[in-house]
TrEMBL record:
This is Imidazoleglycerol-phosphate dehydratase. NCBIfam families: PRK00951.1-5, PRK00951.2-1, PRK00951.2-4. It holds the Pfam family IGPD. InterPro entries: IGPD_sf (IPR038494), ImidazoleglycerolP_deHydtase (IPR000807), ImidazoleglycerP_deHydtase_CS (IPR020565), Ribosomal_Su5_D2-typ_SF (IPR020568). It is found in: Cytoplasm. Keywords: Amino-acid biosynthesis, Cytoplasm, Histidine biosynthesis, Lyase. Gene3D superfamilies: Imidazole glycerol phosphate dehydratase, domain 1. It comes from Sharpea azabuensis. The keyword S-adenosyl-L-methionine does not apply. It catalyses: D-erythro-1-(imidazol-4-yl)glycerol 3-phosphate = 3-(imidazol-4-yl)-2-oxopropyl phosphate + H2O. One of its GO terms (cellular component) is cytoplasm. Its main location: cytoplasm. Belongs to the imidazoleglycerol-phosphate dehydratase family. The gene is hisB.
Amino acid sequence: MREAHIARATKETKVKVDLNLDGSGQVDVSTGVGFMDHMLELLAFHGKFDLYVRVDGDLQVDSHHTIEDLGIVLGQCLSQALGDKKGITRYGAFTIPMDEALVACNLDLSGRPFLVFNVTLDNVLLGNYQTEMTEEFFRAFAFNSGMTLHFNEAYGKNMHHVIEACFKSFARALKEAVTINEKYRDEIVSSKGVL
């Protein structure tokens, strides 16, 4: 089983994550940010990852530290669970229509972190979740997992739908990328021989 368990504590947050890439979509999450819990449930369900998350953050300030630090730990868990990345498909791409919104996610588990986030989000609150934290979450995830990650929004008006399309497309693309490809089971999918 490709699993990782990481706990991280700072003066701003305490984050604990257990991730199983070969799970069935079981999820038990509590971040103190209801909208983020919903997005993590979607991530686990559509990626078929088992995910346990507990975050105790300084929500009296805002959701920034909670969401960013969660992205850091999730990225570290993904990197740890993948190990040497032998046999993985490496690339993933998926486009999700969510009512009036359409968002595409493309990613490469290349070891070269980068984020392109061509998504327009109005700076509003969804519960106690600041929509601008969506980009920060994915940046932290990408840079701490060593992933090249691109999001492109074709269109969308409802911020909940646009962000949900981001998370669902990310989950499906990530599941594709971490899947073991029988053609490459005993090798690294790189002409360099390393990812």
